Amino acid sequence: MNVSDRMLLSGDEAVARAALDAGVALGTGYPGTPATEILEHFSEIGGRAKWAPNEKVALEVALGVAFAGARAIAVMKHVGLNVAADPLFTSTYTGVTGALVVMSGDDPGIASSQNEQDSRHYAVAAGIPMLEPADSQEAYDLTLRAIEISERWNIPVLLRMTTRVCHSRTVVRRRAGVTAAPAPHFERDIRGRVMIPAYARTAHRKLRRKLAEIQAWNESCSLNRVEAGEPALGIIASGVSYMHVREVAPRASVLKLAFTYPLPVEKIRAFASGVERCLVVEEGDPYLAEAIRGAGVDVQSKAEMFRFGELDADRVARIIAGDTSPEPPAVPGKPPQLCAGCSHRYVFEAFRKLDCIVAGDIGCYTLGVLPPLEAVDACVCMGASIGVGLGLRHVLPPQQARRVVSVIGDGTFVHSGITGLVEMTYNPPPTGHVVVILDNATTAMTGHQENPSTGRTLEHDPTGKLSFEELARALGIADVVVCDPALDKAGFERVLGECLANGRINLIIARHPCLLIAGTLREYERAAMQCCEALAEDP
Amino acid sequence: MNDRVVNVILAGLGGQGVLKASEIVSTVAFRAGLDVKQSELHGMSQRGGSVSSDIRFGREIFSPMVPPGEADFLVVVAPDQVEVHRHQLRPCGVLITPDAVDATKLASRRSSNVALLGVLSHHLDFPEEAWLEAIRAAFAEKLHAANLQAFALGRASR
Ligand SMILES: Cc1ncc(C[n+]2csc(CCOP(=O)(O)OP(=O)(O)O)c2C)c(N)n1
Ligand code: SF4
């Protein structure tokens, strides 16, 4: 074995490496655990990568790249796929000229998310072929295969991964002989890409024909393999569940699935009929088990208790044994906390003091919900703070309505808070409203990514900068106040009190850089200054 | 190294370099030509919460997670995290805690993660130079001296 062509990569890094090897022209996406590192790594190793303001825009940009005949990848966490669902569902109708891979990082066990959704349902709902890697080697290989499938059938492909696969480092060997990426070009295809009803009806039928063809091809596709074992027990598994199965049931017959939509039903039927007991082992919802039973193949599946949380070797052993006795409780670790001295802290202290009803949002500041602050009353999804706050204001009795504030970070505001602000000016509640943007100059929660309001690109180079103040004024919000909640605690508290009392619609921008990047920020600013000076000197 | 899979768990709190240390262990095993899987959940690790990382190496590894109760080595950088993880250790497994090195002798307090790797390195069958190489690869040059000193301190302690 030649050791030098092996690499030890996380699943995320392996996807990035495959994208680079395949000549992907542009990687787009939005940060979110567990998928964030894909674009960061892609950029690091020489790929062209861009953070979009949100996942919907990311997918649309990637679709444009694929309409131009090039290869594109759009990367997001599972809940990001909800945001991108609108273009997703119609991109399967329009199809693509080049390649489009949509990567979704699911989070069974909710390591760092707001829900435990199983994005495999999207494959069925949108009619998008789906591949599920089990380790980094497969993340690499299946990214390449996704590009091939996408180009062969002119259809986007969903690469569905989970936190465990994204974040585990395992050995990867790169492949030679990846076909060269085509040169981008525009070819008109009005009926194929303009989804007015007349063309969309045709496109839907065409999509279903493609899927039928892909399914037939998948029946003999090498991505799904039978590993022969004893006939007493046959296990069907995909993703990391397969690895746990190999760990605890080395003698079982296994059908390892990697291409999980549209399913190779006949291959599954043949496997099931060749074993005495056929069991599906999967994390999350019983997606495979239900689809397989729906196709008339009799298989056993896990008990309901295993819908929740990640699987591991122990839990898979229990599933195989049919053991539904209570599991040992997890030993609680130490929960994460706001850093000591984080400026978010002072904002939540003021909310407490003024007895606010807080419609919260997602970011480091969600940790304001934990003791001793306990100052968040709702948190649903990115951007929801503003709409939820307005809804509360509309119907609560005035003395309660006047206590409602919406609080949202800079990253989250750009992602999906802007339309909320528009709603506030369009349909102001009778008692007015107060929105607080926590502008810490970064997307801290996911590891300090840039966003359009920091004025720097994914690579931290200067670019156009969104100004919250100017945006709010353009929307017709007269009361816009900027203050620093860490340097002037009393001032912030006073401003908040005044805004709550004035009965108008208010925007408070609480501006103080995240402690952990204050030093780095100064370096970026110095670099930008030097760059400006050099330009000014250049005649 | 024989066919047996070696299971190591590193644990501590966000900011203590648990992930960096586990990257060093897996790199050493990887460069020795073994199959390696290293797995951790690091969603919100920066903010001082519990962090742990599983490293498994041997001829062929399947699950990336150390099966419960099967850790051969449990290396804990934060004393208050020992009880959180003790159940993961095999009955005759080795527990390595901060007590194993004299922290007052560390050139930098932040290197206690690497000092504990020095202790761990005693028990594993890799040449010392492989560890030093992996440490140099994991840190920026200005941090080499402090981390190599920490490793040597840990390796010398018995
Ligand atoms: C749709 C969606 N995409 C991505 C994420 C992951 N995510 C959680 S919080 C966050 C942004 C946090 O940034 P910001 O609002 O600036 O707050 P900070 O953490 O800096 O305080 C992101 C991207 C998510 N939860 N939902
Ligand atoms: S990382 Fe920054 S924003 Fe997040 S808690 Fe720490 S100081 Fe606050």
Q: What order do the helices and strands come in, and which of them pair?
A:
The complex is a heterodimer of chains A (539) and B (158).
Chain A: E1 6-10, H1 11-21, E2 26-29, H2 36-44, E3 49-51, H3 55-67, E4 71-77, H4 78-83, H5 85-94, E5 99-106, H6 120-126, E6 130-131, H7 136-153, E7 157-162, H8 163-167, E8 169-173, H9 190-193, H10 197-218, E9 225-227, E10 230-238, H11 239-248, E11 252-257, E12 259-261, H12 265-273, E13 277-281, H13 287-294, H14 313-321, H15 343-353, E14 357-359, H16 384-395, H17 398-401, E15 404-409, H18 410-416, H19 418-426, E16 433-439, H20 468-474, E17 479-483, H21 489-502, E18 505-511, H22 518-537
Parallel strand pairs in A: 2-3, 2-4, 4-5, 5-7, 6-7, 10-11, 10-13, 14-15, 15-16, 16-18, 17-18
Antiparallel strand pairs in A: 1-8, 6-12, 9-11
Helix pairs in contact in A: 1-2, 1-7, 3-5, 11-14, 15-21, 16-19
Chain B: E1 6-13, H1 18-31, E2 35-40, E3 50-58, E4 71-76, H2 82-85, E5 89-96, H3 112-123, H4 128-138, H5 144-156
Parallel strand pairs in B: 1-4, 4-5
Antiparallel strand pairs in B: 1-3, 2-3
Helix pairs in contact in B: 1-4, 3-5
Bound molecules: thiamine diphosphate and iron/sulfur cluster (SF4).
Rg of chain A (C-alpha, Å): 25 Å
Alpha carbon gyration radius of chain B: 14 Å
Question: How is the main sheet of chain A built?
Answer: 7 strands, mixed
- Please state the structural category of chain B: alpha/beta
- What's the β-strand tally of chain A? 18
Q: How many structural domains in the coordinates of chain A?
A: 3
Q: Largest interface by residue count?
A: A-B, 41 and 38 residues
How widely separated are the two ends of chain B? 23 Å
- CATH superfamily assignment of the largest domain in chain A? Thiamin diphosphate (ThDP)-binding fold, Pyr/PP domains
Helix content of chain A: 40-55%
The assembly state of the depicted protein chains is heterodimer
Strands of the widest sheet of chain B, in order across it, are 2-3-1-4-5
Q: Can you tell me the CATH architecture of the domain at 6-100 and 127-140 in chain B?
A: 3-Layer(aba) Sandwich
Indicate the percent of residues in helices of chain B: 25-40%
**Number of helical regions of chain B:** 5
Separate helix tally of chain A? 22
